[in-house]
Amino acid sequence: MSDQEVMGLIHRGQAFKNGEVWRPEKKQYFAANLFFESSTRTHKSFEVAEKKLGIDVIDFATATSSVQKGETLYDTVLTMSAIGVDCVVIRHSDENYYDALIQSPTIQCSVINGGDGSGQHPTQCLLDLMTIYEEFGSFKGLNVAIVGDITHSRVAKSNMQMLKRLGAHVYFSGPRQWYDETFDVYGTYLPLDELIGKMDVLMMLRVQHERHDPNESFSKEVYHKKFGLTDDRAKKMKEQAIIMHPAPVNRDVEIADSLVEGLQSRIVRQMTNGVYVRMAILEAILHGKA
Ligand code: CP
């Protein structure tokens, strides 16, 4: 997507938030949310977005679908397309799962990536961008720190790319073993205590235990003290700086419980903005198809 297309979705998300309505180009659209990995926010905010737009949502759960008989993702989406579903939202543990779907000559429905393994989470990125834009009105020159389990975070990967493109200065912090030098092209890795007083946005990441070696030892207390946003660290933040987290949050691990709903936190707003930016994405895709 071009920067203009990204900004267009952010502005359209804001318009939906301010009460703008969708004027569909045909009477009936169908969407299916195919979640092969667990999700609360992405799944349910897409469902709310679809329902707010009047799109018919096709019920789908892997546990009661033919996935249980061994049907592949490709054949599941082929089926959705064949029965007339206009777009599918997919979360899957395989990175780039969508390549085979979008290259298929038979699959006609649009595919929205709801998160592919540790690859990308573009709709989370757009809601994060909308939240930052709402706060600061621009990305140029903003100091944004992405902190925590960066290697395993698809949110971090989408955000580092887009924030740099839009003119923000990106910084990284967290355990060295969860940082990859390939991220150096997007920003600068520094200890959190060197960054904390200079950042406009602190984007804390969930420690993704499910993607770690189960034999790896981990202490919540040690992590919180060394890499987390503690109450003491938060006192050193700029007054206008905001705290973000894609959630779900491990309270008192990557961020102190007391800060999650605090004055500088935009974590709840991120969830709310997710509905509106996803409405903008659905509208853009379905109008493009009509
Ligand atoms: N932020 C996010 O993607 O949350 P879910 O895993 O609950 O969808």
Notable features of this structure?
Rossmann fold; binds phosphoric acid mono(formamide)ester; 39% helix; Asp/Orn_carbamoylTrfase_sf; single chain; alpha/beta; 290 residues; Aspartate carbamoyltransferase
Q: How are the secondary structure elements laid out?
A:
Blueprint: H1 3-17, E1 30-35, H2 41-52, E2 56-58, H3 73-82, E3 87-92, H4 98-102, E4 110-116, H5 122-136, E5 143-147, H6 154-165, E6 169-173, E7 187-189, H7 192-195, E8 201-204, H8 220-227, H9 231-234, E9 242-244, H10 257-260, H11 267-289
Parallel strand pairs: 1-2, 1-3, 3-4, 5-6, 5-8, 6-7, 8-9
The protein binds phosphoric acid mono(formamide)ester.
> What is the beta-strand fraction?
5-15%
At CATH level 3, the topology of the largest domain is Rossmann fold
Ligands, deduplicated: phosphoric acid mono(formamide)ester
Shape: globular
Q: Can you tell me the residue ranges where pLDDT is under 50 for at least 5 consecutive residues?
A: none
- Number of separate strands: 9
Query: Number of helical segments?
Result: 11
Class by alpha and beta content: alpha/beta
H-E order: HEHEHEHEHEHEEHEHHEHH
Describe the biggest sheet? 5 strands, parallel
Q: How many domains comprise the coordinates? A: 2
- The CATH superfamily title of the largest domain: Aspartate/ornithine carbamoyltransferase
Determine the mean pLDDT.
96
Strand order of the largest sheet: 7-6-5-8-9
Radius of gyration: 19 Å
Distance between the termini: 20 Å
CATH class of the largest domain: Alpha Beta
**DSSP helix fraction:** 25-40%
Shape-level CATH architecture of the largest domain: 3-Layer(aba) Sandwich
